[in-house]
Design a protein that fits this description.
By secondary structure, the chain is of the alpha/beta class.
Length: 321
């Protein structure tokens, strides 16, 4: 008798691992899958579009759509409610959702969340206009700062970094809760002094800003990172010349990004979606350079939320688990 693994792999040839190769019909293939991303000027959205194209060509029995959102926290609440099947999220937000951190908007544990893969690091990038005179975290006091969309992964990161720096939002002259593109527009018009954006290196919004005005990338020292007190945060460097006018490495803090789903996604669909992403990393990298840091490794299977059984099967086949 044919077991489920044999059924799932039956007929998969070399062509099926490519973008153009169609998978065999899945016994429990969902008719529709919504991919929850973030703002269109961030990294999640173009990667979500790339995934929808990879999946759509290989899984023609399912219709994939991409939804722009306020990112991590909203995405996880939508997953819990069954209003999306695949979501990009920061790993720190995923941890907070699983444990039910009321302070950041999760009034109870989101028990339906499952991990497909941990993907690339998110760099918390604090950028000020040069004319603002801001050169350090302390200099943000009395300035106009955008901290990201309300309760987005970026805004939750902003709370953590601001607190670790010994500041509060009350120390700023003005706080804006805006997505990346809107924050950049205000900085160009001198209505904002600084923006904090948590994203992959080379995010389009900050490239746009640096090409329009002179900027300063604000360092987050290692001692500040250590005061955050969460293992999902660690020190890293924004390499010199990541943005125009940034001529030296800048220390900052990173967290991770993950692809999450819910426990209602069929095992076979989760297995194929995990496999297809790792087998088509070049297409992901063409969508955004941040995907160059996605790798099939033990880190990819880290359980910030429990692994979905389909993803677990894939990692076991690859010898990672």
């Amino acid at each position: 008798m044919m077991d489920r693994r044999q059924f799932g792999l039956l007929g998969l040839g070399t062509a099926a691992a490519t973008l153009g190769g169609a998978l065999p019909a899945l016994a429990q293939a969902p008719r529709f899958i919504t991919i929850l991303t973030g703002g269109t000027s961030g990294v999640y959205y173009p990667l979500g579009v790339a995934l929808s194209q990879i999946y759509g060509r290989a899984m023609p029995e399912t219709k994939f759509s991409v939804q722009a959102t306020k990112a991590s926290a909203e995405n996880l609440n939508l997953l819990q409610a069954g209003r999306g099947e695949l979501a990009f999220t920061q790993t720190d937000t995923l941890v907070q959702a699983v444990r039910g951190d009321a302070e950041v908007g999760f009034n109870k544990p989101l028990d339906k969340l499952r991990t497909l893969a941990v993907i690339y690091p998110n760099y918390i990038q604090i950028v000020a206009s040069k004319v603002s005179g801001v050169k350090s975290l302390a200099d943000l006091k009395g300035k106009r700062v955008s901290v990201g969309a309300p309760k987005s992964g970026t805004e939750l990161n902003a709370r953590a970094v601001v607190k670790a720096a010994g500041l509060t939002y009350d120390d700023f002259a003005k706080v804006e809760y805006l997505p990346f593109a809107e924050s950049v527009d205000l900085m160009k018009n001198q209505q904002l002094d600084a923006t904090l954006q948590s994203a992959g290196l080379g995010v389009a919004s900050l490239r746009d800003l640096a090409s329009s005005i002179d900027i300063t990338v604000i360092p987050v020292p290692a001692e500040t990172v250590s005061r955050i007190g969460e293992v999902v945060y660690r020190s890293a460097l924004i390499p010199a010349n990541t943005y125009k006018g940034q001529d030296a490495d800048v220390p900052t803090v990173v967290t991770g990004n993950a692809l999450a789903t819910h426990d209602g996604l069929p095992e076979e669909a989760a297995y194929q979606m995990t496999r297809l992403m790792f087998e088509n990393l070049e297409a992901m990298q063409s969508a955004h350079a941040a995907a160059k840091q996605i790798a099939l490794s033990k880190d990819a299977a880290t359980e910030f939320a429990p692994l979905h059984p389909g993803a677990r099967r894939f990692y076991k086949e690859k010898g990672i688990l």
